[in-house]
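Researcher: I'm preparing a figure for a lab meeting and need a structural model of a single chain. I don't have an experimental structure, so a prediction will have to do for now. The sequence is pasted below. Please return the structure as tokens so I can convert it later.
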Amino acid sequence: MNPPATRAVERVVIATRRSRLALWQAEHVKQRLGELYPRLSVQLLPLSTRGDELLDARLDKAGGKGLFVKELEAAIADGRADLAVHSMKDVPVELPQGFVLAAITAREDPRDAFVSNRFATLAELPDGAVVGTSSLRRAAQIAEHRPRLQIRTLRGNLDTRLAKLDRGDYDAIVLATAGLLRLGLGARIRSMLEVGESLPAAGQGALGIECRGQDQALRDLVAPLADAATDACVRAERAVNRALGGNCAVPLGAHAEIDGPRLRLRALVASPDGRRVARADLTGQASEAERLGERVAQFLRDQGAAQILARLVAPE
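Model: Understood. Here is the structure written out token by token.
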């Protein structure tokens, strides 16, 4: 017996956060779909998420990365939307039952960017200078290299963060390069933090398209947007996160690079003050990306990651 024919999709609604960067990302996917399917009607459904509204709380204290995606998933679940577009670094490693990542698109530059109006590099900052970041991962790595800097929480969308820098609240801030480039703000970057200096978050720079797992027609529709190399890298990075129970409360970085059939995966777990850091750097087959991620997670445990994570749960 032949399988039932997949339904024809004539209209798609994409749920997105309201920030300028999120709207850019959703518009990018909309444009790509329009190029592939000229007769397809694609509309955006901008929504406010809990993560966007909690501007004064650190994400790890307020509920984690899921705060940026729950409202979008609810819109899919109740039929208001068909797809959601996410920054992959904001997507929890476990999706709700019934949801899938139908495609992970080609990655933008995954590195962190140093942004300052007065200083060209992190090394130029004088002791006591104030650095803003929303990420425990970034904060821990900055503290490891420059323990005498003052690291303060920086929340809000990209434009808000830059405005806080410009009014003098911070001497420098650290942001994702990808977001700055996508919004045409690359000129604000004073220098890049190389992967060895600031290991990116799992999935940083990549976009994910989420939908209902049972909607094969939608999965087939967005499948051409997937990038195989990025997919393998992001799956490896997220596997490290998953194996270690990673969330916003864990300063954890993971970055994979692909070279033909081989995948190099670097990862770290750090204490928030940067005084204890476990690192791993392993290579494996790209076809076994998630297995490589699990190997790296175990290597990190062997290097002391379990003790660092235990202290985060139950401080001494």
